[in-house]
Amino acid sequence: MGIYDQTISSGISQLKERELESGGFAPRPRGPYRPEATCWAILALLDDPGSQPLIQRARSRLGASQLPDGRVCLSPDHPEAYWPTSLAVFAWHRSPEFQKNQALAVQFLLTSSGRHWPRRADSPVAHDTSITGWSWIAGTHAWVEPTGLAMMALRIAGYGDHPRMREGARLLLDRQLPHGGWNYGNTAVFGQELRPMPLSTAIALNALKSETPRETVQVSLAYLHQKVATFKTPRSLGWSLLGLGAWQARPLPARDLIYQCLANQERFGDYDTSSLALMLTTWRLRGGLEDIFAGTPRP
Amino acid sequence: MTSEQSQNSTPKKGLTRREFVAMGLGGAALAACGLYLWPRLSRPKWREQTFIGKVPDYRADITGVILSGFKELGISPGEIRGKRILLKPNLVETDLGAIHINTHPAVIHGAGQAFLKLGAAQVIVGEGPGHCRDTLMLLEESGLAAVLWEDRIPFVDLNYDPGYTIRNPGRYSSLTQLTFPETLRQVDWVVSLAKLKTHHWAGVTLSMKNLFGVMPGSYYGWPKNVLHHAGIEGSILDIVYALKPQLAIVDGIVGMEGDGPIMGAPKQAGVLVMGRNLPAVDATCARVMGIDPRRVKYLAAAERFLGPIRETEIVQVGEGVAGVRSPFQLVDFIPAHKALLPLI
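ok -> structure tokens follow
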């Protein structure tokens, strides 16, 4: 076994050890259950032959925390924090036992939206506030990452042609920064263009795969491609590889970058469950996140 | 008694129209007077100290300046010994070579060492950045990761910390409850380690506004849009009122002027401002920036119940404000800045 395989194998063991007794995962060892950590752990372990019972327990735990309207929120006493719903659609995908849970979550996504309002000529923000997308938290504005995640979730669930997808793509393109990339979702405020952020850029690129011609996002692909080799942290690196992969632009030394990032735990401390799982998931893929269900071979 | 006498001496029943109007106006005037004076008369008599230390640049002995500040503010080893201290810096975004966006790592290092020298049991650094979900990347790119690694000081990403929810005791915003990160319950002192900056929504961002960063993004979003919709000024007051941090240290060595808190220009002010009372510290900071703190809406409101902002109620130790005042540039087409003009 080579050093890379050893690192991945050790990462998978590390992840499995974090399973909670009652099923599901916490962001940190001995922490409380959290749905987003559970979703990411499921995705990271999907292809691991020994992990199938663990995955079913995690999916059940996720199902138990789903509210009747389909949302999967951070905790039952915080129904407004419904952003993990998109990740749950991924976690339940292609699991017959949880088909109903997934369908319910999809319905929730289709009927929920961020707060939007007519665009005003004197608005200090440059983006079009009237476009419907998705928010992190109920009752707040639509932002780039939750919109991107919801679009990916709807696409794997077979809703790629839904009008909400087109509206979501419109929102993302409207929020693209003129000089390339995306940030959380403001393009310019009081006339000043803001800076791009790798994580937001990568999620938007992954979501826009097959929704828009390449030339409409070329400037952002160039931004991310130029920067990716400098990323040392799991969220930015993992998502950037997925975002570029979705456009067949994954850089060649991807495995070296992932390996190095996992090795950085020596300095940063153990990664949280979602970050660790994201790196392990990225290791298996050449394309975007949805390729996890496409039987894409390991690079 | 004649009928005439009787008529003249009998008290009138009711008031004439003129008397009624006059009395009504008098009553209204009295009420208005009361409404105006009551908050002023009933306002607590404050007396809070703030310390200003001159620090020319980030290579200076910042630990030494903070220890001097502790001494002036009466923060003794006896008070700190055995305490767990959370330092909450302002860590927002990074830009290569920019030292004016975030609390500088040298200031975080200096504060950590000062608390450890006074016998703190543990110093941790915690932040929940409002724009970027990759907090680790911000730590790395800002240079803070290297400093914390060297100092063996742990970092907590407050955005992903488990939350605990309380009823909002202040209700200055529309929020009925507040969710704080669990880490706050595990420390004895919360120190707002802010940056001296202008802010295009709030006017200025100092030790009070810096506390938006303790609210976990998992519950408030990226950006923390729940707080924006509930009212920025009211949310600042609610958080400070509920949390009651023990200390503020503001990094004004290089601050930000113009279109803060992200896109403004560096402004060398050469100061650290410290104190136990956050409105008093922020009022002093505002004066250093050439801004009348009474024009900052949330500071003016804070004066009623959180702390003083008047010069007469702030005991200035260390340097005086006049000696370090360095007016910050404001942007006249930004409404929150326009409200702060003219500079003092």
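Chain A is about 50% helix and 0% strand.
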